[in-house]
Amino acid sequence: MHIFPTPRADSVTDLPAWHPWRVNLADSAFLRACRRQPVPHTPVWYMRQAGRSLPEYMKAREGVPMLTACETPDMVVEITLQPVRRYGVDAAIFFSDIVVPLKAIGVDLDIKPGVGPVVADPIRDARGIDALRPLEPGDVPYVTEAVRALVGELGGTPLIGFAGAPFTLGSYLIEGGPSKNHDRTKAMMYGEPALWHALMERLTDIVLEHLRVQVAAGASAVQLFDSWVGAVAPDDYREFILPHTRRIFEGVEGVPRIHFGVGTGELLGLLGEAGADVVGVDWRVPLDEAARRVGPGKALQGNLDPAVLLAPWEVVERKAREVLRRGREAEGHVFNLGHGVLPSTDPDQLKRLTDLVHEAH
Ligand code: CP3
Fold it and tell me: Site annotated as Transition state stabilizer: where (predicted)?
């Protein structure tokens, strides 16, 4: 039996010619689009492609709390593969959650169904920040194990590792749970900037290590989810957030880096400036306009409104073709939704959409 070394996307050319990875992975449409190289078809994957919209996911998760599932490699592997099998998407996203590394360093939190992450002891002062110790690879052995197993199972389909960005994680930690306006978060940002930057520093170290663990285990790309950063004005993003996200992108080398947030129309240029190779765009800004805002040297990912999938197929088709048409204005385009798949989405619509993107010219 051959034991194949686990390659990183950029190291496949160092592998022997007979190695199966050498042929497939680096040439995948997804990685090529991220690098702004010509592609045989527009690659497509979906945020939250694994999740409550899939009956097989509901079955696998029966009676198992979300965070327990994330810490169980067999479940992570199975759930990550489910949408790849069903849709034939061009990339898998590691099944986990942005709060997993925080729980791994001892933060008392849970994911409440229908609510999201809830933190028992919200961070409001220096004492709370000091408790955020650095993450070590040994804190997340189940992540390493599951990524390695997935890379073996996926063959030429790239695996995307991910983490939450410091602002979005900070918001959960400060507010204690999901928040509409991020009031307390901004209160710390504006009112106690030294404390704020100390918190962002700690979170940056944790996020960086968490991404490195996934890349070291074989993830071919990473996505940084700054889902709620659209709440911040551009000048404030530059002052309070960009230095930290920049350090994350500078610290992850050798794989394409995707940067995503919701409601970031006014921030798109800055999200690119922070150092990502690919900027994720929600449905509010058309991709041709997003390409202008982001500027040269970046690929784009997006941006069909996930709610469109709840409409009849004819509407989905028209809107998807429009996304593809405008996406041609970008130097590289990875088709995706503008945010995660809604739980009420009919999986058959996603299957048809995947086929449409693959067959479109
Ligand atoms: O995209 C994928 O398929 C990979 C899996 C993934 C999950 N969470 C699984 C999950 C990813 C990439 C995330 C990231 C995440 N988690 C983000 C950033 C992405 C985004 O949506 O903006 C955020 C903000 C969170 C925090 C979080 N965790 C929320 C808001 C929720 C939903 C709460 C709910 O029940 O509506 C979760 C839980 C969660 N994470 C679920 C899944 C599949 C639902 C758990 C369940 O099945 O009950």
Answer: 97
